[in-house]
User: What shape does this take?
Amino acid sequence: MGYKQISLKLPTDFSSELLEKKIRKELHLENFSYQIENKSLDARKKSYIHWVVKVAVTSEDIKGDKPEQLSELKIDYRKRDEKVLVIGSGPAGFFAAYALQKAGFKTTIIERGSDVSKRAEGISHFEKTGKFDSVSNYSFGEGGAGTFSDGKLTSRSKHISQERKYILSSYVKAGAPKEIEYMAHPHVGSDNLKIIVKNLREEFKNLGGEILFETLLEDLKVKEGKVKSAITNKGIIESDLVLIAPGHSAFETYRMLIKQGVQFRTKNFALGSRIEHPQEIINQAQWGHKQLPGVKAAEYRLTSNIDGKLPVYTFCMCPGGIVVPAAAYKDINIVNGMSLYQRNAKFANAACVAGVNLEKLVGKEISALEALDWLENLEKSFYNYSDGFKAPYCSIQDFMNKKTPSRNAESSYPLGLLPAPLWELLPEEVSTSIRESLKEFSRKIRGFETGNIMGLESKTSAPIQVLREKNGLCTGFKNLYLIGEGSGYAGGIISSAADGLKAAMSIILN
Ligand SMILES: Cc1cc2nc3c(=O)[nH]c(=O)nc-3n(C[C@H](O)[C@H](O)[C@H](O)COP(=O)(O)OP(=O)(O)OC[C@H]3O[C@@H](n4cnc5c(N)ncnc54)[C@H](O)[C@@H]3O)c2cc1C
Assistant: This one.
């Protein structure tokens, strides 16, 4: 059996019959099988927008060997006696626990939030009433911040190919569409994620793993660099190994870790707001059409580097999505974005953030604890300004001209907008840099200035990073790992899950 990889240009609404016809013609074959290996949209020329599809074709009638495939991440089972406690059921905690349970460890996950069904109810109630639920919100609960997200599964992290393949194939086995394994910009959507998270949990439990919801890690008992037990709101749990995957929203968990001697340094991160446009404006600007058959909704990614200003970029774009109130606590007000698999909602949104070095921004050296205090105060200041969860907003045009809006605007944000001089609520250097960049972006995307800009976007990545050893252990500790986004070494679903898997593999192979 021979193998050949070919690249084909296909119309946006191509059918499998057309794809097969093209393969037949290109390779002069009658009998073959094929697999799509990559599919990306080429929208550089509006008059010729097409998919570029890479297919691997196998047939008796072609010559050529299959290139060496990326080896599978192998997790061998053996009977082990050690107990492992994982804190947090987000992508990092879950995938670490899943691998460790598969390898034979007795693994327990504790999660401060509720299971995904109860969590969905809590979020829906919050969006209807404005009443915040501390165990069921966009940040805390089963599946972590990754569950009610856009479910973009892209990652720019290097050296995680094996882990990425493992994560994507686990998602597919748990119900994700197969295409996430080959799309250049894989996207799974919040509707699918709720099902995937539940199915993965059931598989973890079938393997013998235990998961305890609404169980909050409050403190650790540490002796001579070894964590002896975890103190939770439901009692004490003893464990041989402890992996903490708290994400980067749990302020009190970070503070407890610092108090226990876990060492952190400050790191660069990004701050800004969320921008929103009718999706049709983005489609028209990017494609020259309001719709394109075979493609859900147009995307954009904008960057700007103006001399003397902070770098500004758009991030976490959610075509056909909604802006969500992503608060993790009852007295903070922040926004984020999500979408369903079909990406067919009316608006497109994206974070528009400036990269910051907090020490430069505040003009002095600061500790990790001070960085957390600073960020928490900023998030609280938005809550105080709105006296709740309305998102302070203005139009992009008004932000550029520093003109306070007088009327409300249509938006996907469920808890309402509050006309505000948003630029005054952000740190001055951040808002000046964003203002100049918005002018640049308005020259790049037709109609961009007609959109709105709202809320505080402060969770693109953690403001602090843990000190850890090559084997993943927290510096100064013999059995404690801090993994995922909260560690400061990962950001996003895939890189956080990969970070969790790497820690698990280092334990398994030790
Ligand atoms: C609305 C939204 C949309 C997003 N969209 C995308 C996207 O499209 N693509 C993408 O790649 N990323 C997206 N992200 C970011 C992504 O969700 C995170 O990067 C990722 O989930 C981080 O994984 P994690 O496991 O490290 O932490 P998290 O997912 O944050 O999980 C941490 C978990 O730990 C629990 N926890 C914290 N402290 C404790 C404690 N003391 N005791 C017990 N449990 C605790 C929390 O409840 C939480 O469930 C989005 C985030 C949000 C909020």
In short: The radius of gyration is 24 Å. The longest strand covers residues 312-325.
